Amino acid sequence: MLSKAQTMEAIERMYTMFPEAHGELRSRTPFQLLIAVILSAQATDVSVNKATPALFAAYPTPAALAEAPLEDVIEKIRTIGLYRNKAKNIKACSAMLLTDFAGEVPKTREELVRLPGVGRKTANVVLGDAFGIPAIAVDTHVERVSKRLRICKLKASVLEVEETLMRKVPRDLWVKTHHTMIFFGRYHCLARNPKCAICPLLDLCQDGKERMKKAQVKK
After folding, report:
1. pTM for the full model?
2. What are phi and psi of 127, to 5 degrees?
3. Which of 49, 97, 111, 156 has the most CB within a 10 Å radius?
């Protein structure tokens, strides 16, 4: 396992690789970001960004989306995975925002996770990106990178990965680290073909070293 100092060394190298890392879901309001993040579950940001302009043009507010015909919402997000269930969730989420939160997106994790379609990861993204509240959202990229680098245990749950990162990374860097690790995992430390041979983190990466040894043996 990497120490706290080694973890920050690895993350700082990622900062250098991806200095402009940011959330790639497009939105204009906290509400639109919330809906976009709900839609992004088990789907790519690219697919969500293709669907949301028409959705938000037609239903830009919680009141509008809560009253929207379900079939029309389904039609507008049909290109996104699990679109039927997500259509029901975003309508129900909008309705609860009106009834329980005066139409405003809440600013605490405890309140956010009460909303239909919102889990801890979604809540953390909204806290960080909509409100600048320190949080680390562990998606597939953050989990993969954390385990390959042995920042956390290989058998760690998603919550344990988050808690480990929260212990090892200063609170004021949580949001930046979240986005940087996503970029690193999405564009460099790929799931199937990580770029170990040209990776600036190779000397810190147990998984990468093992992969390189296997590659040498095959030659």
Report:
1. 0.92
2. -60, -45
3. 97
